[in-house]
Amino acid sequence: MDEKEKVEIKPFTNGPYMVSGKFKLLDAKGNEVNATNPTYLCRCGHSKIKPFCDGSHRTVGWKE
Ligand code: FES
């Protein structure tokens, strides 16, 4: 498998998951969601644009 095709999911300290590689993001109904590559998925639960991170983890002081 080409390195560019590998999906990599990396948690940022006190921040989102960065997802890169050849991936498809789906919603709960199985519909494809447009996403940048890499994309950043919310881990803290405070984003107003879920599933994406909007930086709210910083303003709420989320730690993990
Ligand atoms: S991880 Fe960034 S808003 Fe939730």
Spatial strand arrangement across the major sheet: 1-2-3
As for the CATH topology, it is Ribosomal Protein L9, domain 1
Uncertain ranges: none
Category from helices, strands and their pairing: mainly beta
- Give the overall shape: flat
The number of strands is 3
Helical segment tally?
A: 1
Cofactors, ions, other ligands? FE2/S2 (inorganic) cluster
Largest sheet: 3 strands, antiparallel
Q: Could you characterize the architecture of this molecule?
A:
The mean pLDDT is about 95. β1 and β2 (about 15-20) form a beta hairpin. This protein is mainly beta. The chain has a three-stranded antiparallel beta sheet with strand order 1-2-3, with no helix packed on it. It has one domain: CDGSH iron-sulfur domain, mitoNEET-type (Ribosomal Protein L9, domain 1). It is built from one helix and three strands; from the N terminus they run βββα. Bound molecules: FE2/S2 (inorganic) cluster. FE2/S2 (inorganic) cluster (FES) binds next to α1.
Task: Set out the fold topology.
Layout: E1 8-11, E2 17-20, E3 39-41, H1 56-60
Antiparallel strand pairs: 1-2, 2-3
The structure holds FE2/S2 (inorganic) cluster.
FE2/S2 (inorganic) cluster binds at residues 15-16, 42-44, 46-47, 53-57.
Keywords:
3 strands; binds FE2/S2 (inorganic) cluster; Ribosomal Protein L9, domain 1; 64 residues; three-stranded antiparallel β-sheet; single chain; mainly beta
